[in-house]
Amino acid sequence: MTQSTVESGRNMLDQRIDRLQRGFPGQLGLAATNLSTGEEVLVNADEVFPTASVIKVSILAELFAQVEEGRLLLGERLEMRPSDIVGGSGVLKELLPGLQPTVEDLAMLMVVLSDNTATNMLIDRVGGVETINRRVQGEYGLKTIALHNRVDFEKIGPDVRRFAEATPIDLMRFMARLARGQLVSPTASHKMLQIMSRQQYLDQVPRYLKVNPYARELNVTPEIGVACKTGFFPGTRVDAGVLTLPGEVKIAYCAVANAAPDTSMAPEAEPAIVQGLLGKLLVDYWWPRSDGSSGTLATPYARSYGLEADR
User: Fold this and answer.
1) Cα separation, 42 vs 23, whole angstroms
2) Are 250 and 35 in contact (CB under 8 A)?
3) How far is the C-alpha of 173 from the C-alpha of 140, rounded, in Å?
């Protein structure tokens, strides 16, 4: 591939992201890097956005740091009290108090189902909001990643920023360190990525990617691997994680669609669609095969936003 071809491809990507941004009646944020080449794609990457439940990765990191320090065991059981139960996403709210899941169970629920009850139980167990922020901002140097409150909808109200905030670039850097085995330790990074690879909310960045969420059970190798954490709130969608393309090409990313007039929680809510289109654009651009194959799926939304191939 010649230099002019590479530049042409990058120009086309930038133009399409610009069209998507102009066509979306909200705010977009994007930070993505190809860890094989170091190339970055940045859109409002230094702007502080609400993270919604993506902030739960900072709780996960604190948990594994304390495990490494010998202060916590993944097999420790915590009893779910009536006061722990909170609404919103998750399954524990549907179960009776007295259940005693392990810390590892709670971490899995917090990530793959974004369980808010599991989240609050883990925040309390690791020492609270300030303990989590001190680690991610101080030790890891990701100063914009900030958890403001436990999951408390009375405090959060209609403003998801009251829960947590970060810049896309800091969340991308978090994911890049995780992908490189540099977050907490190589072993802990691997374990956290394993948990994130079981994510069940794949309706944002992976939306139009050739992802098989049942590949593990079917004992097949998916074309694209995804390890991510998503967050959702009326008018806001956030997704951060690591994509693995053929040839072990890895993309660390954070994408945000915020302040959308469409505040529905429907599968076809506009901010979720836009997040999927960002993922499609990135994978089309960084797809490593030159055999005419594709890692993405066709969608009529690409045409409606003017993202079809220029003719």
Assistant:
1) 18
2) yes
3) 10
